[in-house]
Amino acid sequence: MLKGIEDISATKKRLKFEIPADVVEEEIQKALKEIQREAKIPGFRPGKAPLSIIEKKFGQDATSEVLERLVSESYKKAIKEANLKPLLPPIAEDAIDIRRKEPLYFELIVEVRPEIENLNYENIEVEEIQAEVKDEEIEEVIERLCEERGSYEPTDEPAQAEDLVVIDYKTDIGKQAEDFVYKLGAGPFPEEFSKAIEGKKKGETFNVTIDFPEDSIADFAGKKVNFDITLKEIKRKQNIPYEEIHKEFGFDNPDEFKNHIRQRLENNKKEQVLEKQKYDILKKLLDTHEFELPEGLVEMEMKRITEEYESLGLDITQHMDKISERAKRNVKAYILLEAIGEKEGVTVSEEEIKQEIINISRRYSITPKGVIQYYMSRDGSLEALQNSIFERKVFDILLQKSNKIKKQEEA
């Protein structure tokens, strides 16, 4: 039973427990009798072996099981009674020993959510930008799509930048190639190589000497190479005609296609506005609330960010200040949003989690089972998904309670 709580810091508590000897012994006897019903002891029918034999053979197992259960149940009850908000599992500083016929004493250190004084999150000012889509933006998208969906077609005109060419070449260092496809102006050869081909016509044979730099990714790095080149074919990008592009996307007429593009652009702009509003709200919350951050949670977040940097091949020793600052900001934001969500009664139902899994599966064209497997393999649970839904619902409330200042989108 909880005997007392010691404040180590604003975010760390020491819970002191004492469980009477008779309670401990009663639980051990219950565990032994449970084992007795299932144990198979030579010379005895199942469930009929004397308790003294069961205790001699399985006494340690029963005691260990009781210890684990009593510690777990006592901790859960204490957290509820003291209205603490644990952030991480509890830690026992010393080994917990259980002795027959004696009270069980133990202490647990638990990191808890700090109390936030004067929590204020209403009427935060955010800009209400009008997500208007101009006709010129739609035209730009269509023109880009005409180019992207275009194809390379043979041409008899002289080669020019960005053409695809097919060449044969021989070099004075023994390397050669046939039907080598190369885009003029692209790597890995130096710009001089492309310039030597520009202006040439299909069927021409010519010679050029190229100095390859030491840092070139081509096979000729650091060498001066003489090329004998035959230009066999030239292909030039031909854009899809403006008046035909809508058919590429399955639309019956240009107007339907333009309306589709307008809707997508509007949705993208609305999403950008929403993300900026969320950022502004969170920044305001972070700037106007100060409280002690839980050390363990910050350390855990720093470890996660460090692993992220290492996966990108970055030298973490040069980024420790950034990692520490980012970890503290993330932890502070997490605590603020959790406190606001609790105050507003935000919960996440099983149905909401299932719907989120379906939404993700549709967005990324994978099965719901694949979504679950991803989160389970990465985190071991769906807690990250649940937290994402919780955070979104909290931000919905913050946006509803914000003070929106209208501002027309700049041209």
Overview of the structural elements:
The structure is a single chain. Helix content is 47%, strand content 18%. It has 411 residues and is α+β, with helices and mostly antiparallel strands. Helix 3 (135-148) crosses helix 6 (254-288), helix 7 packs across helix 8 (320-343) and helix 9 (350-363) packs across helix 10 (368-379).
Structure described in brief:
The chain has 411 residues and is an alpha+beta fold. It has helices at 21-38, 51-82, 135-148, 191-197, 245-248, 254-288, 295-311, 320-343, 350-363, 368-379, 383-400; strands at 2-9, 12-19, 104-111, 125-129, 151-154, 164-171, 176-183, 205-211, 224-238, 403-407.
Please count the beta strands (DSSP E, at least 2 residues each).
10
What is the multimeric organization of the chains shown?
A: single chain
* Reported CATH architecture of the largest domain: Orthogonal Bundle
CATH class of the largest domain: Mainly Alpha
Structurally, how many domains make up the residues? Answer: 3
- Weakly predicted, low-confidence segments: none
Query: DSSP helix count?
Result: 11
The CATH superfamily label of the largest domain reads: Trigger factor, C-terminal domain
- Principal-axes geometry comes out as elongated
CATH topology name of the largest domain, in short, is: Trigger factor, domain 2
Averaged pLDDT: 92
Approximately how much helix is present in the residues? 40-55%
Largest sheet data = 5 strands, antiparallel
Q: Strand-residue fraction? A: 15-25%
Structural class of the secondary structure composition? alpha+beta
Please tell me how large the radius of gyration is. Answer: 35 Å
Give the termini separation: 67 Å
Note the run of SSEs as H and E.
EEHHEEHEEEHEEHHHHHHHE
